[in-house]
Amino acid sequence: MKYLSALAATIFALAIWQAIVSLTGLPKFILPGPALVAETWWQNRWLIAEHTWITAIEVVIGLAFGTILGVITALQLANSRAARVLVQPMLVFTQALPVFALAPLLTLWLGYGLWSKVAMAVLIIYFPITSSFFDGLMRTPSGYLDLARTMQASPRAVLWHIRIPAALPSLASGMRLAAVYAPIGAVIGEWVGSSQGLGYLMLLANGRAKTDLMFAAMLTLGVFSIVLHMIIRRATARMAGEMR
Amino acid sequence: MTPAPDLIVKGKASIDGATLFAPLTLTLGAGQWTCLLGGSGVGKTTVLRLIAGLNTGAVFTGEIMASDGQPVTERVAYMAQDDLLLPWATVAQNVSLGARLRGEKPDLARRDRLIERMRLQEHLGKKPSELSGGQRQRVALARTLMEDRPIVLLDEPFSALDARTRADMQDLAAEALQGRTVLLVTHDPGEAARLGQSITVMTQHGLTPCNPPHAPAPRHVDDLETLATQGALLRMLREGAA
């Protein structure tokens, strides 16, 4: 049923897209139809696969680093009042900065290659991971803490045996958000300066008025993000289910 | 476990300057079940939490002492209405939680004996979500017994259970916690009448001691004197609230 409704929605979207193309008679370098995009995608499948691979590596490394950094930060914040006072405002401030503005700077600092894109992805997911896990750590059901207190638990044991497990579902929802954001970060990085990746391919195709290839690359990115989200969803299912 | 001491709570409490309870003295007899009966908001849970050394949001002026002069808070075990089982841990892990939280090695043989005594041996490896309400409270009771403390504080632990399971749990707890100084905070006159070796009614006007029935606790649910006590307690509650 779930797959059927997803299929129906996809067909509906494609039909509207085709109807707009047919009714307006727009030239194909302005708006190519779904059939042309599919054909272009098939003809360029190896090219697209190559660039998807690059973006995927950036995203996966970014996700890994962003998650680790976010988890460490959240633990520090949860453990120390001083960290909350000093670091938390800074975290919020960095979120207020447009990531786009930082991208050229990261390219300047980290070069044209992989790492500036990884850094972009890390930057964009660091906050959702940190804040969701931190919220979870600060919202331990008070009854558990009371019980632990009467058992003379040390703060460290409470963190390890109660607060972290109780916060895992929050971390899982942060990671699911991150799975959707990370590709955006990597592509922004690619737009600002790169010679490979789906973002680079989109920019290249657009510049040469190969709008059909631009669409093919963009849709591939969309599908990649959805698949990544599904994988992370599956991987975090146990974590999220543990607070039933 | 040190022998169960008398416990004396003496003092008053206020929240944001407003009186929660006026000066009172509550004595819990050594090795006895004391039932503190009262409606919502009279501060009976606050009294229990003060003894346990937990946050109450109230300012308490007074003292809480044990007759043997030893500190109180590190000798209590606590059981609440919410069973407080960790949903990610198994029954066995929940029962031995205290030792893990103190970084000690749990006494597994003792844990298994208690689990068997609570008739939970088939559920050892299950998660709390797979158990019924009564089974969950039995796990909580096993966890409380595992702590092996002379003072046991029960904050309406049976009030969310259905009538039959509640009566079963009352019997089980009365038997299992024999010889310890127990404070049972409850709003159920029937529960106080069944279990109290000493019964105190708490209202806005203060504490009123009440004679428990003569039969040894836990009393039969249809014992006439117990039912009469239940009625008398309910009347006191209603008059106290007026």
From TrEMBL, chain A:
The keyword Methyltransferase does not apply. Keywords: Cell membrane, Membrane, Transmembrane, Transmembrane helix, Transport. Pfam families: BPD_transp_1. GO terms for cellular component: plasma membrane. Residues 48-232 form the ABC transmembrane type-1 domain. The chain crosses the membrane at residues 53-78, 90-112, 118-137, 213-232. Its main location: membrane. SUPFAM superfamilies: MetI-like (SSF161098). Belongs to the binding-protein-dependent transport system permease family. This is Putative aliphatic sulfonates transport permease protein SsuC. It comes from Ruegeria meonggei.
UniProtKB/TrEMBL annotation, chain B:
SMART domains: AAA (SM00382). One of its GO terms (molecular function) is ATP binding. InterPro entries: AAA+_ATPase (IPR003593), ABC_transporter-like_ATP-bd (IPR003439), ABC_transporter-like_CS (IPR017871), ABC_transporter_ATP-bind (IPR050166), P-loop_NTPase (IPR027417). Signal peptide: none annotated. It comes from the Bacteria. SUPFAM superfamilies: P-loop containing nucleoside triphosphate hydrolases. Residues 2-229 form the ABC transporter domain. Transmembrane segments: none annotated. Its EC number is 3.6.3.19. Keywords: ATP-binding, Hydrolase, Nucleotide-binding, Transport. Belongs to the ABC transporter superfamily. This is Maltose/maltodextrin import ATP-binding protein MalK. The gene is malK_5.
